[in-house]
Amino acid sequence: MTSRLTLPMQSVPFFDYPAVFGSHELDFQRIFTDIGRRGAFIKQKDLEEFENAIASYLGVSCAMGVGNATDGLEVALLASGIQPGDEVILSSHTMVATAVAIHFAGATPVPVECAADHLIDPAAVAAAVTSSTRGIMPTQLNGRTCDMDALEAIAVKHGLTIVEDAAQALGSQFKGRFAGTFGSAAAISFYPAKLLGCFGDGGIVVTGNRAVYEHAFELCNFGRNPSGALVRWGFNSRLDNLHAAILNFQFSSYDRTIARRRHIAALYTQQLKDVAELVLPPAPDSDPSHFDVYQNYEIEAEKRDELKQYLQDHGIGTIIQWNGQAIHQLAALGFTQRLPYTDWLFKRMLMLPMNLSLSDDDIGYVSGKIRTFYGYRS
Ligand SMILES: Cc1ncc(COP(=O)(O)O)c(C=O)c1O
After folding, report:
1. pLDDT tens digits for range 175-205
2. What's the per-residue H, E or C state across 231-278?
3. Which ligand 1 atom sits closest to the C-alpha of 68?
4. Which residue among 102, 119, 168 is best mutated to probe the pocket of ligand 1, counting the most ligand atoms within 8 A of its Cβ?
5. Vertex 165, ends 162 and 170: CA angle to 5°?
6. Residue among 141, 79, 140, 131 nearest 110 (CA)
7. pTM score of the predicted model
8. How far apart are CA 235 and CA 66, in angstroms?
């Protein structure tokens, strides 16, 4: 009698947190020990080094670690002069955090349509400007920077302040300028699954404007200025020194991180470009205006929900961003806008695995299953 050998199913999780730790476990243990032995927990040299490293990478004068990017966006808005009663325009395809920051800064978030590349549509921004509009908060989504020429032109025409949600975009560029360096200020997230991740919550505010930095610093430090004098009401939002030390370590290989993500995106493009039922994100270097860093690889797919289930049945993790809800669809928060293009996109979008734990073979497996699902040869 012959026995059948059943091979274990290949598994490609959407994200693998233990693998991140395991890839550099000894380095992380060394960092924990060093920080612990120095007792260097709050506002120590590791934080200063990290802030300086990010500022010099982006070419901005000021960077300030914060507890998370949502806090960072709120203080960036407040420090940039956004006030109660102001309207701030954002893309409806963003995390609720963007709207939350605008709301808690006292302003009204006004979501608008995104464009075919899933980023805010400048024409929709222009159409949404009213006499109460004071700001635009573009989300540099999925590691791609918006058409900042178009947004800056609208801002100049109407006297609006731009504060970038660059939570997903460290290293991404538009026409040679980094996301986070347009407008008054920006915030970047170090949530564990981000391009540069720590082991919990973390973020940074970046700005080229010293006055904005000082105001943001006071807001995040109980209202105290850098000399320790109490000058306004403030709260507490700081990047932990331990996280800064971990981020310093991760940032030392950031060029390789970006190169690997762009390589994975190129593999997906190569292996899926003939599948007519899909719309893929722009391939790396397909548009000289954009340098994309692929925080996410977000496709559009016919029969999206069936595809997601099929991939899950074959051990492949995918995610529908924001639990499948655009900002204008969040009725519990009082939004009433009608945005048909975004509604349509939200029935089609799906994020494929995109992270440093993936091998080229994993990408081949994911692409192969997608091809099989639509009846294409692998
Ligand atoms: C587009 C966007 N904005 C804001 C945030 C909020 O960042 P954080 O979790 O650091 O507050 C995130 C992610 O978490 C995000 O993806």
Report:
1. 999 999 999 999 999 999 999 999 999 999 9
2. CCCCCECCCCHHHHHHHHHHHCCHHHHHHHHHHHHHHHHHHHCCCCCE
3. 10
4. 168
5. 120
6. 131
7. 0.97
8. 11
